[in-house]
Hints:
Its cofactor is a divalent metal cation. Zn(2+) 1 binds at residues 464, 500-501, 618. Belongs to the cyclic nucleotide phosphodiesterase family. PDE8 subfamily. The chain has 721 residues and is α/β, with parallel strands linked by helices. It folds into 4 domains: 2-135, Rossmann fold (3-Layer(aba) Sandwich), CATH 3.40.50; 139-250, Beta-Lactamase, CATH 3.30.450; 277-326, no CATH class; 343-365 and 406-710, 3'5'-cyclic nucleotide phosphodiesterase, catalytic domain (Catalytic domain of cyclic nucleotide phosphodiesterase 4b2b, Orthogonal Bundle), CATH 1.10.1300.10. It has helices at residues 24-35, 46-56, 73-77, 104-137, 156-162, 166-169, 187-196, 283-288, 296-309, 313-326, 343-352, 390-395, 406-412, 417-428, 431-435, 439-451, 462-476, 479-484, 487-499, 509-514, 518-522, 528-542, 555-571, 577-593, 603-618, 626-650, 666-689, 692-710, and strands at residues 2-5, 14-18, 39-43, 60-63, 94-97, 143-146, 151-154, 201-208, 214-225, 231-235, 243-246. It has a 5-stranded mixed beta sheet with strand order 3-2-4-1-5, sandwiched between helices. The longest helix is centred in the N-terminal third of the chain and has 34 residues, at 104-137.
Amino acid sequence: MLVFHIRSTYQLTQYLLFFAKEDSQSNGFCWACEKANFRCSMARTPESALECFLEKHHDLVIIDHRHSRHFDAEALCRPDREEASVMPLINAGFNRRYVENANMMACYNELLQLEHGEVRAQFKLRAGNAIFTALEQSQEAIEITSEDQVIQYVNPAYEAIMGYQQGELIGKEIIEVPKSEKNKPDLLETINSCIRKGKEWQGIYYAKKKNGDSIQQNVKITPVIGQGGHPILLPSPKCVNVQCYFYSPDIQSSKHKDRRKGSLDVRSTTSRGSDGSSQRRHSSMARIHSMTIEAPITKVINIINAAQESSPMPVAEALDRVLEILRTTELYSPQLGTKDEDPHTNDLVGGLMTDGLRRLSGNEYIFSTKHPHHIPSHLTTPLSLNDIPPRIAQTMENEDSWDFDIFNLEAATMKRPLTYLGLKIFSRFGVCEFLNCPEATLRSWLQVIEANYHSSNSYHNSTHAADVLHATAYFLCKERVKQSLDPIDEVAALIAATVHDVDHPGRTNSFLCNAGSELAILYNDTAVLESHHAALAFQITTRDDKCNIFKNIERNEYRTLRQAIIDMVLATEMTKHFEHVNKFVNSINKPLAESVKSVLTSPENRILVKRMLIKCADISNPCRPQELCIEWAGRISEEYFAQTDEEKRQGLPVVMPVFDRNTCSIPKSQISFIDYFITDMFDAWDAFADLPNLMQHLDNNFKYWKGLDERKLHSLRPPPE
């Protein structure tokens, strides 16, 4: 089936389905259009298709290419057939082949991918061209400057009115262009001051032509917040000369900001224009929120409402924008303004931070958890720490170093690194002494936990768990971390790292929710895997005294330890990633920067430190030495490829389309992951725990992936010379 699509408006509303006869495939696309609220037309012949298209100019056309005896689909799309071709009617577009699949959800997913992928990207390109065409054709003089007041553009009308040519102005600062002496001395600074505050400026401005004559202009400049928090200044229709200052709001700079894409700002802000509605006061809202028992956010809103009553208009308008931001339920989730341009980031966000697109019926993914694995028979006599074979002991000699190679241990232990590394690290931290449990119990527990990791997973297996345990132990030895945590916190962190992905199926939460799995139903599509890991870990531990490491601790201490472990495991869920990072920065990093030492001892902040610790340990791969980083990137990519393959086989929504093993660029996916998830988090963690070696690895790895991407390579490594 040949699919090509065109785009004329931003909202995708018109579909043309060209099928020679009705069948399950055409019905599937009809249902998908209805579900997506798209209007669609059906055509059966080339003549009716062309007539329908010319009448409505559909945004997207789907042509049946299976029944060539009815019409030649490819010939219909060739530009050399003027009388029966729609291709000459557009200047650009996309061609796409869709393999026959009558599953309704597959059709629906295909339409969504088209809408949120190249279709919107094409629209933005056209919109940009349209804007500059309008500027070129405008009869009013327009001048655009950068934030440092360097002239970027003048239109032909400006040249005609002012007498200058573009080449005489582009790249020059405003102060280099003669201005009329009739202007007040501080006029330009007044304009800039208004713009920086987000205010509108309107007034009389005198400009000097090239021949020396002064002309009076009525100028109105209105800042409008665009994507990513960047103000764009729009002129009023009466404006003759417009100076547009493109600038970024002041944000806290990052030590490693050179890694971040300029177009991606995870701290983007939301605002609205001055349309008069901001003059309203919210006394009614204050009454609505006057509750007997107030939540903290309600108190904040009430304070703002009260402050607005006696505030001058600019302050009241600013507080209006604050209230709009506070009313969203996703206070800590940044608005990804460039997700349409960056499908890798878009897919990572959609795949890791959502609970999937729900299926209506059929093809349920059965994932049973009723029978956890027991210890394999060949492991029933566990080894003592002192009896570890020399070859394995040798691979663990530098386990306290960040550059420790977990893959050497994986090979030496025949894919059972968690038991051996766990024995050594738990012994180093005195876990058996704290829990008052025999070493044999700890050994049995480690082995049964490892037995419940899936060695068939390329990434989420016991080697990943051992790697996270290693990173956790490394972080616990940092001075600032030791000052913050008690011994029970350290034990909880080590146990949480060990069990945090137990029984992981190698599929994301989105996949399980889309497939209607037993786990998704059990946990109501909310933190499905993380809830399962925590629950199963305690089931495994407490069902048999031989591996119950909690058997001998006091009840209250067990409750405290259990709660800390559960909280840390749940913190590895990515939907609250930005909430955890922002709370850590605002509650710990900023007070510490102001020398407020008491922040390290409060119970609430200890929780934030533990969450941040396990989160950083869980996704620290980009901060590992380069060869380890590359290996982990290959493993996670393979797991995502396998998920995409299975989604296609089962007709499930493909939650991360870019992870197609035939087309995926692994460097691009790593760059997006570092940009969106890693940079801010490790900047904050480094500021707290002092980790210069990790940050150096992160810089090196980012440059490595960037270098591969610049060479248009999609692989893990460059080809051999």
